[in-house]
Structure formats: C-alpha cells, structure tokens
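Re: your question about MFS transporter

S., sorry for the slow reply, the queue was backed up all week. Below is exactly what I fed in.
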Amino acid sequence: MMEKLTFGLGDFGANYSWTFIASFITIYMTDTVGISAGIIGTIILLARVFDGFSDIFMGTIIDNTNSKWGKAKPWVFMTAPILGLLTFSLFNVPSAFGQTGKIVYVFVVYFLISVIFYTANNVAYSSLTSFMTTDEKDRVSLGSIRFIFANVAVLSISSFTTVLVSAFGGGQQGWTWTAAIYGLLCAVPLMITGWFVKERNVAEKKNKEQKTSFIPIVKVLFANKYFNLAIVLYLLWYLRQTETGARIYYATYIFDNPNVMGILSTASLLPLIIGLFFAPQIVGLYGLRKSVNAGLLVSILGTGLMIFFSENLTWLVVATVINALGLVLLQAGLSAIVADVGDIVYWQSGVPVQGSVFSLTSAGMKIGQGLTAALVGWALQLGGYVANSAVQPDSAIFAIKSMFIYFPLIMIILMFITVTLLNYEKFMPKIREEIANGKVGEDRSRALLGK
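Result:
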C-alpha cells in the first residue's frame, strides 16, 4: 500500500502542471497578458498535434530503455524538475515583450511542456501501471489511488488558484507567486515517485532479433481493435473535459462570482475522490465493463439534469455530484483497460509494448485535451466573448454553457458506446496464463478472442 500511495503521489504532482495550465492558461493569457482566446486556442491545438506524435516516439524510447533503475522510472524522475520550471515560466510572460514576442514566448514554452517534457514524464508515469504489476485488482487499485491524488490536486487547484492570485497581489505578481508554488508541487512529488516505486513486470522479447523500433510497434498496435478502441476512449474522456476549461467562465459570467468555481469544482471532484476508494471493490464484484457502463448511465442522467438547472446553483451542484459519481468507475478503470490492452497486444504479437501502448493512448489524451482547450477558446471567440467585460452577450453565454454542459453530455454517450465494444474481459485470465507460460505470438492459442 505504501508503494501504491507513492505511485499515486506522482499524479498529484503532474496535475500541478497539467491541470493548472488547462484550467487557467486561457483566462491568464486573455485577462493578464492580453492575448486573444482564439490565438491561445490555436497555439494549444498546434502544440498538441505535435504532442501526439512525440507521445508515440516516447513509448518506443521507454520500451527500448535499459537501465539499473528500470524502463520508466528514470524518465519520471529526470523530467520532473524541468517540468516544474517550465510551468512557472508559462505563467510569467515577460511584460517587456511586444505582442508578437509574447505570442512566440508562449508558443515556445508551451511547446516544450506539452511536446517534450510533460510527454516524457507522463508516458513513463502512466506505463508504470503495467510495469509494476500484472494483477487486475492491483491495476484498478493503482488507477483508483492515482486518480484520488489527481483529483485532490485538481480540487485544490480549482478552489484556491484564484484565491492565491488575489492574496499575492493580483495581476502578474499574483500569478508569479502562485506559479512558483505550483512548480514545486509539480516537481517534488514526481521525483519521489520516480525514485521509490519498483518495476516487476517487464515483458521480454520473444527473440533477440525481434524489432521493437517505432514502425513495427505501431503496426502491431493499430492492428488490434481493442487498442484502437482504447485510443477513442481516451480521446472522448478528455474531450468531455471542456467543462474544466469553461468552469471559471461559467462561475464568472453565469453566477457573476469567480469564487463559485470552487463550489463547482468541489461538486465535480469530491464525489470522484470519495468514490474512487470504493471503485476496486465494485469492479471486483461486477466486472470492469459492466461497472463502467452502469456508471456512465448515471453520468448521463446527472449531465441531463445540469441542462435543466443550468442557472440554479443549488440544483446544478446536485446534478454535478450525480454526474461525477457516474464517472468514478471509468476514471478508476482507464489505466487498467490500457494495461490489459497492452497484454492482449503482447500475447497476440509477441512484441513488448508496455510503454508504447500507454504512449499512443496518451496521444489520444493529448489531442483530446488540445482540442478541448481549443474548443473553449474558439467557442468564446465565436460567441463574441469580451475579456474583462462585466456583461457578456447572449451568444457568449450560450458558448460557455455549451462547453460546460452540452458538449460533455455528447462525449459521455459516445464513451458508453465505446466501453460496450471493449468485450475482452472474460478472456483475460486465460490470456495472462498463456503469457506466464511464454505462449505469445505464434505460440498462443487461436481459440481466444475468436482468432
């Protein structure tokens, strides 16, 4: 349990970079730096497109890393301090730069974070779920603990960032001190994770001549339908999170109080944190797929209620809690699903893909998050959002509601369909047994999975 907690601590740190940026980059750039929301959305999307490709290469690098620390651990540890420093730099755009200089600075720093250092860190961190254990319950437990820590970080960031910025004097000074604290909270936990966890389950090549370079790995991954479904699931999961980027605008312009963001964040994240303690037991009783889809139906109900109570804070909070409870089991099971898919691909092909399978689903995550941030920026631009205006046009209000409620509901419905198609669960005990006996690739059973 101590090692599981140490693993989970890493996602606490990672969110002090990623969630901090995702939640506040647009409003910081529009209202403090003076860059338009449309430009910020475009910068984020461009970086994320490159980011998707860098994820793929990073997975191959991990699969070919051989060190006394392991395959993933050294990357988690070494990239953490750089990631913390770059996060600080992103929220300290030099005021001496002209408008073009500021845009170039933001693009370069965001590119370094998204495409290189967060990619290296997060792909390595995520793949630890596979490297640490083969046990299904432990994998779900790792996912639950990971996201408990992640959601605690997200809740803290959402609830206290605007308070900290104001407490430190507001404006650029407030962002500088807040970003300095968050940079440390990013780097230190990730370094602890990278130093202390252990890698026990490292898939071996079927033969020494086997190629584990980029193209052969990509071929075996995309030939597997479950891998493709996993990418779609990750993409949808992160596209759903337009509500995260829109939350500060929703609080500010629907309820006329930026501090309502803390209430909405608590309603969204506290049920997740509590529910994740029970997720492994529920999955153990009813199975992963059935549990996740039952939860998604609850989430659809909760999001539907949010539409009817969009401007009633009390009932919106109730609906948000229901929505969050429904998402618990999918969040707990995401890493386990990807680790399972990695086992299936290895069993079918004989090619070790523990790092690469997480890198390509991470690519789906990054592209999804890039589109999410871009969609929020574009929606605000199309809606005629006016920065720092006390009153927004009706079109901007509709854009904010769309990103906060309507679009996420569509994504949840699509996630339900995707999880329904992930029907591999009953075959996994036999697949793991064959892997343990070295029956992978050409030596595996052809009767499983209908092939």
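Residues 267 and 321 are 5 Å apart (CA to CA). The chain has one domain: 2-199+211-441.

Happy to talk it through on Thursday.
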